Amino acid sequence: MTHYMDFEKPLAEIEGKAEELRAMARRDPEMDVSEEAKALDAKAAKMLDDLYKSLTPWRKCQVARHPDRPHCRDYIEALFTEFTPLAGDRNFAEDEAVMGGLARFNDRAVVIIGHEKGNDTKSRIERNFGMARPEGYRKAVRLMDLADRFGLPVITLVDTPGAYPGKGAEERGQSEAIARATEKCLQIGVPLVSVIIGEGGSGGAVAFATANRVAMLEHSVYSVISPEGCASILWKDADKMREAAEALRLTAQDLKQLGVNDTIIPEPKGGAHRNPEAAINAVRDAIGDMLKSLDGKNAKALIKDRREKYLDMGDRGLAA
């Protein structure tokens, strides 16, 4: 069943009417509703184009959070072969919000790390809705160390509302774990590429995305804080999330201008959730291009490239 967002209600009505007509025709084969259904399909297609042509930042947040959007597990299953998951931080526990392990991408050995939100109630609870705890970030550090030791490129898939802010996570050093993961991103002498596939929330995202190359799906978002959190702090009113989303400049298009991301990956019409296969294939191409752009660079050059990218970012942002 299609999940419609609030701004898609008119579209839902039209597509629902078209489906009703087809259901009636299936029950009564003598009934010919093909022309009416085609007319409704054409109207729905135009409305979909119009809606997604000019999405506001808040609507992009809604699209980035859509429950049917492909998640980390979907990308790993579709794009990587011989995936061997590696678990635990060798210190406290396994964090199900972070997937990671060894795999092959285009027959090239790599290390893959990503946030996994889950796709139903049970898996979302198990995955903590993609909000990693300290052990998740320490697992990522362990995997990046492994990649560096064996000369394997690191690919990260970012999709998190932010790191988990619970009492236990704070007691186990959440901020320190995020800082260590961010530091490790800057230290490893292998190619590191990252794709924001949904939400890139706060330091929980930066810890995986301090990469040589960063790509964002067209309707993904990447920000220091969620619009709701920003609105609560600035206006003491979470209902002002639309204004906050505008002010945060969190869309892929805004961040490209600011030099935060390098590539915008086009999404299928109506967003990645309407055609996950096409979205996944587009991400495959983007990852391949990013890795190719780093081929031939030695460890020193890769580290220098990565550090300069982030040291220059503020200047590029001011210039924009």
Structural features, described:
- There is one protein chain.
- The chain has 320 residues and is an alpha/beta fold.
- The chain folds into 2 domains: 6-54; 61-319, 2-enoyl-CoA Hydratase, Chain A, domain 1.
- The protein is 52% helix and 16% strand.
- The protein contains 15 helices and 8 strands.
- Strands 1, 2, 3, 4, 5, 6, 7 and 8 form an 8-stranded mixed sheet that branches.
- Strand 5 (192-201), helix 9 (202-209) and strand 6 form a beta-alpha-beta unit.
- Helix 6 runs parallel beside helix 8 (174-187) and helix 8 (174-187) runs parallel beside helix 9.
- The longest helix is centred in the first third of the chain and has 20 residues, at 34-53.
- The N and C termini lie far apart (42 Å).
Terminal Cα separation, in Å? 42 Å
Oligomer: single chain
pLDDT under 50 segments (min length 5)?
none
- What is the count of β-strands? 8
CATH topology of the largest domain: 2-enoyl-CoA Hydratase, Chain A, domain 1
Strand % is 15-25%
Brief sketch in words of this structure:
With 320 residues, the protein is of the alpha/beta class. The chain has helices at 9-27, 34-53, 57-64, 72-79, 121-126, 134-150, 167-171, 174-187, 202-209, 227-234, 241-248, 252-258, 276-294, 299-311, 313-319, and strands at residues 80-85, 98-105, 108-115, 154-160, 192-201, 213-217, 221-223, 263-265.
